[in-house]
Write a structure and sequence with these properties.
Beta-Lactamase, 9 helices, 14 strands, 49% helix, rod-shaped
């Protein structure tokens, strides 16, 4: 079970159930013991009165003076009964027992006992019995009282208490649910900051949270700051490294092309190709650093804010060619894809389109259902079906005369596949050149996880 609220409800419910059960059992025992003690005290007093009413006849048997008995012992099934039994078998029963009898137990003088029994007319009897010795005769006197009405009254009180306890339990669970939800509501600013963190609108979580989770929030903020600083340092180092090796690589390339250099043509060309490859990689890292800008890791992509800047940058890179880069952006707000990934993807596609375009490049971004659809077209010469099949292979470049490193489209394909998306190339429908079409799945606004 993962829900904290459910755990709290179950824990409190079990605790209250055990507590209320213990209170109910204690109350039950206390009420019954108190009621029985009161009735037994009265029965004991009545027994003493009966003993006082006994006399020994001339034949040696005991006799009860009827004139000293209360009327309840003469009324049949009145609920008040007694039985006197001597050691020699004489048995005296109250007239209220009518033709019924009352079970008793043999007791020695000076001892007593009490118990519950079912009496005449299914009456619930509380029986008290004592052992006596009178004028040389040992006998036991059992006296009983119907406590059916008393038991019903106690049962009613118990049911009332049980109902109140169940109602109290339900009310306490509801109150606890309200309190727990109020406590969780205090975390709402953190949830909002997490969403703003995803969209790049903030760099840290708010510390206006309950004191119990404030240490956790502060640790997360320190971790976020540490990651942001590490990312910035990595970008800076990559950019500086790429920038610093460009000069030596250019010098090395020029020297390799010097005809006075005593080296065979085949190894010369191999070295020139490898140097050129290193220079292109350095340019790529520099471009990535420029495109990434100041955004943090995990920032969402806003086409309306990012693509105009990217189009202007590519326009300057491909000068003096005069290009009309048209943007058709049918989205609003942030898309649930990583900003840096999209800048690299669109940067590569637009850069390739700008290389081949004569004058026009068109880029459209729209959301259709649960997909982000991106199309980049140019008015260049286009590609044959054979070239389209090989165009995304790493390092393949169709025209060696055009500046480029041959990695852009392959990298674009890898980015698309990491989002479990699709990329395909086909003749452009509006500009007559090549069209790159990308479809990235986005479901319910959730971030598509790169593989």
């Amino acid at each position: 079970m993962k829900s904290l609220e459910s755990r709290l409800h179950i824990g409190l419910g079990i605790s209250l159930f055990v507590l209320i059960g213990a209170v109910w059992w204690s109350g039950h025992e206390a009420m019954h013991r108190t009621a029985d003690a009161f009735v037994l005290s009265r029965l004991e007093h009545d027994a003493e009165g009966l003993v006082g009413a006994l006399t020994r006849r001339a034949d040696g048997h005991l006799e009860v003076g009827n004139q000293r008995l209360t009327p309840v012992y003469h009324q049949p099934f009145s609920g008040h009964y007694f039985v006197i039994e001597t050691v020699d078998g004489q048995r005296i029963r109250s007239r209220s027992l009518w033709d019924q009898d009352l079970a008793d137990r043999p007791l020695s003088p000076g001892t007593s006992a009490h118990w519950r029994a079912i009496g005449p007319d299914q009456q619930r009897l509380l029986v008290w019995e004592g052992g006596y010795h009178l004028d040389g005769i040992e006998f036991a006197l059992a006296i009983a009282e119907d406590v059916t009405a008393l038991d019903r009254a106690l049962a009613f009180i118990e049911q009332l208490f049980a109902g109140l306890a169940i109602g109290g339990l339900v009310i306490m669970l509801l109150v606890q649910r309200f309190v727990v939800r109020r406590a969780f509501a205090a975390l709402a600013p953190v949830y909002q900051d997490i969403e703003r963190l995803e969209s790049g609108q903030t760099l840290a979580l708010t510390e206006r949270v309950p004191s119990e989770i404030l240490p956790l929030v502060r640790k997360l903020n320190r971790l976020l700051l540490h990651f942001a600083q590490r990312l910035e340092r990595s970008r800076t180092v990559a950019g500086n490294l790429a920038h610093s090796i460009k000069g030596p690589l250019s010098l090395l390339r020029q020297q390799l092309k010097d005809p006075d250099l005593n080296i065979a043509q085949a190894p010369r060309q191999t070295l020139i190709d490898q140097v050129e490859r290193l220079r292109q990689l350095a340019e790529r890292q520099l471009k990535r650093a420029r495109l990434a800008g100041a955004g943090g890791a995990g920032v969402r992509f806003n086409p309306n804010a990012e693509l105009p800047t990217l189009a202007r940058l590519l326009g300057r890179i491909h000068a003096p060619k005069i290009l009309d880069i048209q943007l058709d952006l049918r989205t609003s707000g942030l898309l649930s894809v990583d900003r840096e990934d999209m800048l690299e993807l669109l940067g590569n596609l637009l850069d390739n389109a700008c290389k081949w375009a004569i004058a026009h490049v068109r880029c459209s971004v729209t959301v259709l259902g649960d997909e982000i659809v991106i199309r980049v077209e140019d008015d260049g010469p286009g590609c044959s079906e054979h070239d389209i099949a090989a165009i995304t292979e790493r390092g393949v470049r169709l025209d060696e005369q055009i500046s480029g490193h041959g990695l852009g489209l392959a990298i674009a394909r890898e980015i698309v596949e990491s989002y479990q998306g699709r990329i395909r190339f086909h003749p452009a429908s509006t500009l007559a050149g090549l069209c790159a079409e990308i479809r990235l799945p986005v479901g319910d606004g959730q971030w598509p996880s790169p593989c």
